[in-house]
């Protein structure tokens, strides 16, 4: 009955209901520590330069076709849309991170685009991609359920970037609270509920190398719609807003309108960088 009711209701109504629940659960959490000292300064973030870099555009034209052949030029398999995948590639090429942590592997589309950028840049680092399920398993992996013929591991081998990826099966907090690694880029795209993102941000900040950045997906500024369907995923915005109230030195930089299409006829992205705001 619950599934039938959910299918009958407008998606915008459901997202509003989820947002109300998110606010209540987030408000019930005790305050956590948010140390932005390792974050890149907001003044050192040059989105316009990075997203319009011609050298990166040329590299994209070389690396994109084989991955697009796998995941398509739309978001038919779910997950990160093609425009956002391109933005991830550009950011990795621009930032030149040696070590990336990704929370939420799913079908591995974002993983492989970032790994391809690492490979193209000549970096010897890797992406550690963490998911609550074994993303490469034939039974539990999302790739099998959406109709793909290979796992993320299989496609990584096909694209010759497997050496740049370490797949981990754990919850985000299990991994982040135990690892001794430090990262230049942390991409949070797992559980989008406000309480989960709030805790992930707190756990992620100490794991950054100096000048590192945290990238959020499904960040809807002011919890307002970005796309024509009027749906909103409010969790990441609500989580970051509470973190910013507890430490105003944490800033958000939404990528906003990209120089290429994203989804639903739009060029807006829900990607947003966290950076340090001084003064």
Describe the structure.
- With 279 residues, this protein is of the alpha/beta class.
- It has one domain: Vaccinia Virus protein VP39 (Rossmann fold), CATH 3.40.50.150.
- Helices cover 41% and strands 15% of the residues.
- The protein has eleven helices and seven strands.
- A seven-stranded mixed sheet has the order 3-2-1-4-5-7-6, with helices on both faces.
- Helix 6 links the parallel strand 1 and strand 2 (126-131).
- Helix 4 packs across helix 5 (82-95), helix 4 packs antiparallel against helix 6 and helix 5 (82-95) packs parallel to helix 6.
Strand composition percent: 5-15%
Query: Which of globular, elongated, flat, extended, rod-shaped describes the shape?
Result: globular
How many DSSP-defined strands?
7
Major β-sheet, in short? 7 strands, mixed
Structural class: alpha/beta
CATH class: Alpha Beta
**Average pLDDT across residues?**
92
């Amino acid at each position: 009955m619950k599934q039938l009711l959910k299918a009958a209701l407008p998606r915008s109504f459901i997202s509003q209901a989820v947002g109300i629940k998110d606010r209540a659960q987030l408000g019930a959490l005790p305050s956590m520590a948010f140390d932005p000292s390792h974050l890149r300064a907001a003044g050192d973030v040059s989105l316009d330069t990075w997203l319009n870099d011609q050298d990166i555009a040329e590299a994209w034209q070389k690396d994109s076709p084989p991955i697009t052949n796998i995941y398509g030029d739309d978001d038919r398999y779910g997950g990160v849309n093609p425009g956002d995948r391109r933005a991830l590639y550009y950011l990795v090429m621009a930032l030149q991170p040696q070590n990336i942590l990704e929370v939420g592997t799913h079908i591995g589309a974002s993983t492989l685009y970032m790994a391809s950028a690492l490979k193209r840049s000549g970096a010897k680092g890797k992406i550690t991609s963490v998911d609550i399920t074994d993303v490469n398993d034939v039974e539990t992996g999302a790739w099998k359920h959406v109709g793909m013929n290979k796992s993320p591991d299989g496609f990584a081998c096909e694209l010759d970037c497997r050496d740049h990826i370490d797949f981990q099966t754990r919850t985000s907090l299990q991994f982040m609270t135990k690892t001794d690694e430090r990262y230049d880029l942390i991409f949070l795209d797992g559980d989008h509920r406000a309480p989960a993102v709030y805790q992930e941000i707190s756990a992620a900040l100490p794991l950054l190398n100096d000048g590192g950045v945290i990238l959020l997906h499904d960040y809807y500024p002011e919890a307002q719609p970005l796309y024509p369907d009027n749906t909103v995923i409010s969790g990441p915005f609500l989580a970051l807003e509470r973190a910013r109230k507890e430490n105003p030195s944490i800033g958000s930089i939404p990528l906003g309108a990209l120089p290429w299409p994203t989804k639903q006829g739009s060029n807006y992205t829900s990607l947003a960088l966290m950076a340090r705001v001084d003064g």
